[in-house]
Amino acid sequence: MARKLGICLSGGGHRATAFSLGALMYVVDSGRNTEVSAISSVSGGSIANAFIATLPKEFSNYTADQFEGEVAKFAHQIAGSPRWWNIAVTLYFVLLGGWAWETYRHFPNNLLSSYHLYFIVLIVAWAFLIGPLCRGTLWCWWGTWLYCGLLIFAMAWNAVLGMAWYVGVPWVRRLTLWPILLLALLLLVVLFLRGQIAEWAFAHTINNRESGGKGAGRPLESLPRAVRHVFCATELHSGRHAYYSHDLIYVPFVGVGEPAGMKLSTAVQVSANFPLAFPARALLRRRKQEFVEGSGIGRHRVRLFALTDGGVYDNTGASWFLEVDERPDLAHAWSEDSFRTDPPAKFGLLDQSVRKRASRQLEEMRSRPDQLIVVNASEPEPWRAVGAALLPVVGELKDLPDATLITYAVRGKEQAREQMHRFLRPDFRRNLQGVTVSAAWGPTKLAIALGAGRGKWDYEIVLKGADVDDSVITRARAVHETVIKRIEDLELIVGYPYRGMHYICVPTTLRPLGESATANLLWLGYFQTMVNAAVMLDNFPILQPCPPDRERFKALAAGRPRPRPPISKA
Question: How far apart are CA 43 and CA 455, in angstroms?
Fold first, then answer.
């Protein structure tokens, strides 16, 4: 069967990971995973993409029951244990408080007492014993806890030394200020390495025995070929997406090269390199990557790529599919004499094998599927408490991450709406059938908006100003009559539950979500993908039971896939 389906997994931390898993479960249950040609992702969606890429079999070869067993292991890992996470954080600050009290009691006479060493031993034991009980992705690895614990302690100890120097402790005064300043500089360098710590934690997650993966240290070249897995990061020189896959690296205005041993965990980390939480990641342009550059205006020979979260440019991850005709690098003719390599080839000529490789890579980037599912887990704008924002200094530090999250949420929502308007246009649908699955809309909003017609609240919110293809309206009315009107739960009809919007307003975080939130996100991703795909795409069925059984997803979040009756089509 010809492969013609593309899937995009958006950013949004663990919320996006769980929501994406639910959408992928529906694709497998409907039997359409056999047609998937590529999966692109950013940020939290890249964690789900890496999980799919490291399964024991190709994603396209899984049956519904087999895939559900794999999802149960990984969903339980994502759900983690918020209880143990809170215990671990609380215990650490209790230990830190005890150390601070002892330091205060003996200051400045006993700064080199053995209790400092005891405290370090307790931090190491705490990191090894309690940290991994939290599970999740970033926090499931003991190294993350050890790094954070020792870093905070070292910063506190440096502050104590600075205070001792200030009050005139003789042996500290003899050190002069330079060692203290050098220690502070070293701490800043270590603080800047938190992106590398996150990469090692992701590698541990991918390779975790409970999740069933085999990906720690795994190079991109070893990923499956039948389904292309594309990890998108924002390259700061160009302000556009850079793409990492098993056989290519593409950086706008620079060229196309080979992964050359780049690790899967590195691609996941640069894709999920959220600003403020992690510094921009610098990756050297290595000679063995053999970048091939096209001729034309706007080419740049950079030696260092500066990468940040893929959601900075496009949080839906759809640029791999939707920008094939817009990339400046590909707008130029790429005939045989328009390539050049870095380092330059002898006499300006390319080796025939390099020429063929570059042509194949560029051709792959120009391919477009027949159908596209955009899974967008951008968070709706919640009501925020702003009391702390009014405090001097503290408020300013709090404003910056809040403003960043609001920008992500608004931009993600607007991108999803713009994409949906594009997918509804008759002229666009002649070349590509697409659908956006948005966590901010609720599971039935699109079907109601199109099926109930103009003048309805849902239509005005989601589709106002859209040019809608008649075939889509016909399918939406059929889904509205046969499915939506039979749902008795008012929460599903409205799109949001009244009790706290518990399956949508999960913050953008890499902390453990808990089994309840994970189950709700799996259910929402599955249900909304089913309804929206049935409305917008050919040959995507409504599966029974509809709505999906919540108990099934609760069992998955608990790591216990349960036997279930065969799924039937409505």
Answer: 37
